[in-house]
Amino acid sequence: MAGSKGKKGKTGLIFFPAFDWAISPTHPEREERLLYTRDQIFEEGLMDLPQIEEFKPRLAELKDIARVHFCVPDVEAQVTEAHLIAAGSTLTLADALESGQIRNGFALVRPPGHHSMTVAHGNRGFCNVNNMAILVEYLRTKYGHKKIAVIDTDVHHGDGTQEIFWHDPDVLCISFHQDGHTLYPGSGFVNEMGGPRALARTLNVPLPPGTTDEGIHYVLDNLILPILDEFKPDLVLNSAGQDNHYTDPLANMRFSANGYARLNEKLSPDLCVLEGGYAIETALPYVNTGIIQAMAGLDYSHVREPDFEPGRFVQSETMKREIESTVAQVQSLWDKRDDLVDVALSELGDFYRRRKRIFYDTDMINENQEEAVRLCPNCPGYTTISSQGQRGYGTLNNVYCISIPRHACSDCKTDAMEEYKEHIEDRKYSYVYLQDKDRDKYLIYNVRTRNQKSY
């Protein structure tokens, strides 16, 4: 069975509205997203129930961020205290889960994170750093978990989480979302399925605008839950975006609060991390109440939005067939995953390379990136990323990033260190970064000042 189903214990909650962080006073991503929810939960008396325990947030360490991101120019430049508390809240619940204090937990925090990628030049999709990826790497580093599944239920494609774990066969990333042809960030198509060693460990289920509870539960029942049973992760984590709701102002889906609660009951995640959801009064209080009750094993059948009418949203036969066809395509990729990897590796040489252009819609930054992954026969191989951020006609920073994965062989470690030493002498770059995940050590070298910082 998926996630925490069958375990006994409490559901842990953390609320962090981030009063001192906002993109702008009237921006959809603002503190009221959580304040209405908190009022609703107290009104319902949920916080007084023995099945639920509230935890206090804490700051993530800068190293927790550097373990995941190459922040340009450094971690301090990309995060505020609010970002560190949002990320740290997920880690508090991870500690409580691992110590047996809770059986599952929900971090209702902001700012969100799932659009933030490996290299972080600024804010894109309201995200500076990726709370979910920070949680995954913390669980692996501190507690030794190997296989983790991340199910992203936000209406927007979880492109940042996907990109961070693109080459990692031990992190299964499944995102269902409104079709990227019709919504930001314009990605998340079926053919996006991971790097050569991790093909079909990234799975995307684009859904047509107007998809209802019926369609989303079809995806869950016929694709996601069977794949989780086969993958057998140590933990199931949920990027719990709530903007599939029928009242959300930034999307076009037709999911209900009760549908969200049923999804959570079936998925039974060990930990949930809030992502998007911008219907502040009409959706979030009801959706979050339903999810919390489902996580705590309480009856959520009474959870209804004031304007909800049973049978109001009906899927057409055309939409139903489209969803069934997409599910069949994704299932086929999963079934062929090992063959896909074998074929890809047989056709590639010593390195896998790709070029990307990434747009930071919030900060209006264009990034050009070239990535290379060593396809080592003895280990996961190291990764290098050359990245240039631009705003308008001006170059912000030109950086070179090197990542040594866990369980890298001695040859790859040596080669990666030589890359680092070579590039700190190369005046082409403003900053050179090194992630050494085996040693849990992270370096930033400022080429202009010749100063090195470590986390």
List keywords for this structure.
Arginase, Chain A, seven-stranded mixed β-sheet, alpha/beta, eight-stranded parallel β-sheet, 455 residues, 24% strand
CATH architecture of the largest domain: 3-Layer(aba) Sandwich
Strand order of the largest sheet: 2-1-4-10-9-6-7-8
Note the gap between the termini: 38 Å
The CATH class of the largest domain, by name, is Alpha Beta
Strand content bin: 15-25%
CATH superfamily caption of the largest domain: Histone deacetylase domain
Number of helices: 12
Helix content: 25-40%
CATH-assigned fold name of the largest domain: Arginase, Chain A
The SSE order reads EHEHEHHEEHEHEEHEHEHHHEEEEHEEE
Class by helix and strand content? alpha/beta
Average predicted confidence as pLDDT: 94
The tally of structural domains comes to 2
The outline comes out as globular
Write the layout of secondary structure elements.
Elements (H helix, E strand, L loop, with lengths): L9 E7 L15 H13 L7 E3 L7 H5 L3 E2 L3 H4 L2 H18 L3 E8 L9 E2 L10 H13 L4 E5 L6 H6 L6 E8 L23 E6 L5 H19 L3 E6 L16 H11 L3 E4 L9 H12 L21 H19 L1 H11 L3 E10 L4 E10 L8 E9 L2 E11 L5 H15 L6 E6 L4 E6 L4 E4 L1
Structure description:
This protein is 32% helix and 24% strand. It is of the alpha/beta class. The chain is globular and about 65 Å long. The chain folds into 2 domains: 329 residues, Arginase, Chain A, CATH 3.40.800.20; 105 residues, no CATH class. α8 packs parallel to α9. It has an 8-stranded parallel β-sheet, sandwiched between helices. It is built from 12 helices and 17 strands. The model has no long low-confidence stretch (mean pLDDT 94).
